[in-house]
Amino acid sequence: MRASCTWLNNINTNGVTRRKIMLKNKLGKRLDQTDIEIMDLMILGKNNKEISLTLKIPLSTAQRRVRNLISTGYITSDIQINYQKFGFKTGLLYVYLRNGNIEETAKKIHNLDQIISVEIHIGNSDILGNVIYKEGKQLLNLISAIRKMEGVERIVWSERIYQSPLKRNKNIINVLNVQGLA
After folding, report:
1. Which candidate, 25, 34, 29, 19, places its Cα nearest to that of 5?
2. For residue 176, which of 41, 61, 73, 182 is within the disulfide window of CB 3.0 to 4.6 Å?
3. Can you tell me the distance from the alpha carbon of 129 to that of 114, in angstroms, rounded to the nearest whole number?
């Protein structure tokens, strides 16, 4: 869903001029400053009650706005399994193709047992596969199966050792400014 930005008026608060923005997507749903502040707080891990207290809005308003942000697709929530807690190793497979149908190859890779997700990229590698495995033999068999696929030129493997927490200090309005949406 692509958003377009409409600048409204400048607001003078305590001698500081701030721009009030509204974002409007193709469905006509508008995001106001409160929605943006709610998204900022959600990124910080705040729940509805904490959002309500921070923004000094009723809890029911915070809940309704969060529901609306989720239902319109502005906010997504991904629950991820910590595979390492179950004894799995995780990593990435970078698949380089010499020719062939990238989407078809990505679907074939996605159907393999140890692959938990596949992404198609433009740039260095063509396909990026997120992998889980317990033993090196499983990984070896997986790489061998992918190498046999038509059009696969080479595969590079990396194992995840550590994953940093998500950046929670990004201000949504700054991100939108960088992307030219605000």
Report:
1. 25
2. 182
3. 10
In degrees, rounded to 5, the angle at the alpha carbon of residue 119 between the alpha carbons of residues 89 and 128 is: 50
Closest CA to 66 of 18, 113, 99, 34: 34
CATH topology identical between 3-77 and 83-159? no
Q: What is the pLDDT along the chain (182 residues), one digit of tens a residue?
A: 333 333 333 344 444 434 444 444 444 457 888 998 898 888 888 999 999 999 999 999 999 999 999 988 888 877 778 888 999 999 999 999 998 789 999 999 999 999 999 999 888 889 999 999 999 999 999 999 999 999 999 999 999 887 776 665 556 666 666 555 54
From the options 3.30.70.920, 3.30.70.60, 2.30.30.700, 3.40.50.1820, give the CATH code of 83-159: 3.30.70.920
In b/e form, how buried is each residue of 141-175, taking b as 16+ CB within 10 angstroms?
ebbeebeebeebeebeeeeeeeeeeeeeeeebbee
Q: Is the pTM of this model over 0.85?
A: no
